[in-house]
Amino acid sequence: MKASPRILTLSLLSATTLASTLLVPTAAAAAAPRPAAKAQATTKAARQQVEAFWTKARMRSATPMERLLTPGTATARKLLEVDGAGLLAPTAYPSGGASWTGGGQVVKTTGRVFFTYQGRTASCSGSAVVSQNKSTVITAGHCVKLNGAWHTNWVFVPGYHNGNAPYGVWTARRTLTTPQWGSSENFSYDVGAAVLNPQDGKLLTDVVGGQSIAFNQPRWRRMYAFGYPAEAPYDGSKLTYCSGPTIVSLLWGTHGMNCNMTGGSSGGPWFVNFNEATGTGTLASVNSYRLNLPILWRNMYGPYFGNDAKALYEEAQKS
């Protein structure tokens, strides 16, 4: 099914101006810069306020992040045309966007992300991962910060299904992103993280488990992508997935996969070595953006998890 026209020309599974996004990331020769971070609900009163804010009705009415954005500039569109040159979309794939009915751990570790963006409620997706603090969620950078502003009222709802939160609503005490996304919104580094507050004295992964995560992995892998697309033809009520071979963007070095998930799926996990029987895999990217271009409109793109993504994860899991 062709992507909704509301997926931006540079469609971010979210998108903003990409004039600064020019170079494919290379292996870092030195230690990665420290991630950007923002304190969120750090007191009991603040946590209670955020929890009270996110009623079921407000979650249902939250707008997919991408619908709150405007298309990129003419320069960004020109860059996208260059990026498309010479790329062919994979033609064989088991799922280009279907409800996940396989069960397993992924049903609990994947969830919807809700937050306030410029005074409006919005949604993305995210994944609980194994971490030292047992409280870390990985998502997209634009799902924690965009246009220079950090999102507020940030929560993660693992296992969200048809308006229900079977494992609770978890507030963030800190959100983080890569320095490249934080300073210039470079889509090669569109990775974010959140550190969540305990709930009823319990930590996130003690309740829902956590997926493994890896960095600097080989490219051109078969991968599975998950998320909660909330823009037509989807409505955000069900966990959705895509799977198949991946390509590499010539300009940004991001992964690409045939996938028609829409706005709201941003930040959902991409797995290598995914086991359908157990619903477990190794997180190696997240849903980030789409291209509204011939041939490539079927593709979802996600950032390569290199040294900067690793530094982000290390900072988050020690928080």
TrEMBL record:
<feature type="signal peptide">
    <location>
        <begin position="1"/>
        <end position="30"/>
    </location>
</feature>
<dbReference type="InterPro" id="IPR018114">
    <property type="entry name" value="TRYPSIN_HIS"/>
</dbReference>
<dbReference type="GO" id="GO:0006508">
    <property type="term" value="P:proteolysis"/>
</dbReference>
<dbReference type="InterPro" id="IPR009003">
    <property type="entry name" value="Peptidase_S1_PA"/>
</dbReference>
<dbReference type="GO" id="GO:0004252">
    <property type="term" value="F:serine-type endopeptidase activity"/>
</dbReference>
<dbReference type="InterPro" id="IPR043504">
    <property type="entry name" value="Peptidase_S1_PA_chymotrypsin"/>
</dbReference>
<protein>
    <recommendedName>
        <fullName>Peptidase</fullName>
    </recommendedName>
</protein>
<keyword id="KW-0732">Signal</keyword>
<dbReference type="InterPro" id="IPR050966">
    <property type="entry name" value="Glutamyl_endopeptidase"/>
</dbReference>
